[in-house]
Amino acid sequence: MSLKYDYVIVGAGIVGLAVANEIKSRRPASRIAVLEKESELGRHASGRNSGVLHCGIYYAGDTVKAQVCAKGGKRMMQFAQEHSIPFEKSGKVILATSEGDMATVDRLLRNAAENGICAYKIDDAELHKFEPYAAHAAAAIYCPDTAVIDSRTVLEQLRNLLSRQGVDFFWDCEVQTPLGEDRLKTSKGIFSFGFLFNCAGAYADTLAKKFGLARDLALIPFKGIYWKLSERVNHLVRSNIYPVPDVSLPFLGVHLTRVISGDVYVGPTAIPALGRENYGVLQGARIGEAAGILGRLAGMYLRNSNNFRKLAHAELGKYGKANFLSAAQRLVPCLVDEDLVHTPKAGIRPQLVNVRTHSLEMDYIFEQTESSIHVLNSISPAFTSSLAFAEMIVDRSNAV
Ligand SMILES: Cc1cc2nc3c(=O)[nH]c(=O)nc-3n(C[C@H](O)[C@H](O)[C@H](O)COP(=O)(O)OP(=O)(O)OC[C@H]3O[C@@H](n4cnc5c(N)ncnc54)[C@H](O)[C@@H]3O)c2cc1C
């Protein structure tokens, strides 16, 4: 006996919910099940992120990210307006703190021009009109279309909307293995599907492998730890202050973000983690998984792919508050040790590495069978992108 659905979606993160929403908008009468191994929404990346709706300036025009980030951000703000979800289009500045950053500044501005993104190069005086306490910068970029939103509120609204439209949610329902082309074994029994969408975030690659896919891909999780500014110095940051990133890496660097509640978060780090859900020091780490990850990390370190040694040294140091503080001081120099307050906020980026080229995958990846599509490397800015990303996923599936 199995439960039968037209579409089964694995994972109730933002990508799975956005895919369900897209299918419902195209085929309102379809029967959809969302299978989620946790008992509630937002336990992983979609509920643990910075809550920034990125404008898309980081991505070259030939990437999937460029195709869906700016569009997705606009659609998310429209969705927020339609459903009375608070968001703030507060803008952001990206600071070049050394002459070496200037080539990247030009590259980011080229990306913006190519992708129709509003961004201006500003000088030090203009920068300090936006952010009076920011470091002096050789140059800076101002992005007026960056916004902040509470990601958990978005997840809840989407879930409520989908439930009202008849989508069935199964909580504590871990998808274990496919049974042929159209059935799945789960911890809650067997499900039959017309088409399957694998949106399992940090576990999407393990499920894809059970379908005989993702053979060249393996996971290296990176932990993002945050600190918060104490209330006393909260006024030092008006909106979002980011560094010019190292474009050989899929991370944006420690930044300061005034979130929708008014708190200012500092982070996240990109520290190699010991497991897909290793949010604490050892919590969530499993021995077998950790051994595989350590092996891949050692390979990346030895080959120095994606400038990995520099990343590893800089990021591991950020477990210590002093190193973390100095990353923040590069953006806001007047910060001192007691200005950073501990927070439990931490997230994991399920970063995929290509085991043939030994390099980090920078873009979203899709792999398919006749009756399933697998969304891999769903890293930042997948929250921003989600509504446009879902449109692309459903188009590619050819199933709706
Ligand atoms: C620290 C951090 C900061 C970030 N900041 C931003 C930002 O500011 N802006 C932005 O756009 N993006 C940001 N991101 C990225 C963004 O949060 C993620 O890309 C996005 O949330 C991924 O969504 P998802 O649905 O693919 O994954 P998830 O949210 O992880 O959802 C996947 C779901 O699948 C479930 N699942 C897994 N395996 C199974 C299984 N076998 N059976 C059933 N269910 C399963 C999981 O429990 C989970 O709920 C950030 C990420 C991190 C970690």
How would you characterize this protein structure?
The protein is α+β, with helices and mostly antiparallel strands. It has a domain at 1-90 and 147-216 and 363-400: FAD/NAD(P)-binding domain, CATH 3.50.50. The protein is 31% helix and 27% strand. Strands 5, 6, 7, 13, 14, 15, 16, 17, 18 and 19 form a ten-stranded mixed beta sheet that branches. Strands 1, 2, 9, 10, 11, 12, 20 and 21 form an eight-stranded mixed beta sheet that branches. Strands 3-8-4 form a three-stranded antiparallel beta sheet. A hairpin with a 2-residue loop joins β11 and β12. α1 runs parallel beside α5 (151-164) and α1 crosses α10 (382-397). The two termini are 26 Å apart.
Summarize it.
By secondary structure, this protein is α+β, with helices and mostly antiparallel strands.
Roughly what fraction of the amino acids lie in strands?
25-35%
* Largest sheet composition: 10 strands, mixed
Percent of residues in helical segments? 25-40%
Uncertain stretches of 5 or more adjacent residues: none
Mean of the pLDDT scores?
A: 95
CATH class of the domain at 1-90 and 147-216 and 363-400: Alpha Beta
State the fourth-level CATH superfamily of the domain at 1-90 and 147-216 and 363-400. Answer: FAD/NAD(P)-binding domain
Note the overall shape: globular
Ends apart, CA distance between termini: 26 Å
Number of helices: 10
- CATH topology name of the domain at 1-90 and 147-216 and 363-400, in short, is FAD/NAD(P)-binding domain
- What structural class do you assign from the helix and strand content? alpha+beta
What is the gyration radius calculated from CA atoms?
A: 21 Å
Please tell me the CATH architecture of the domain at 1-90 and 147-216 and 363-400 by its name. Answer: 3-Layer(bba) Sandwich
Ligand kinds: flavin-adenine dinucleotide
Number of strands: 21
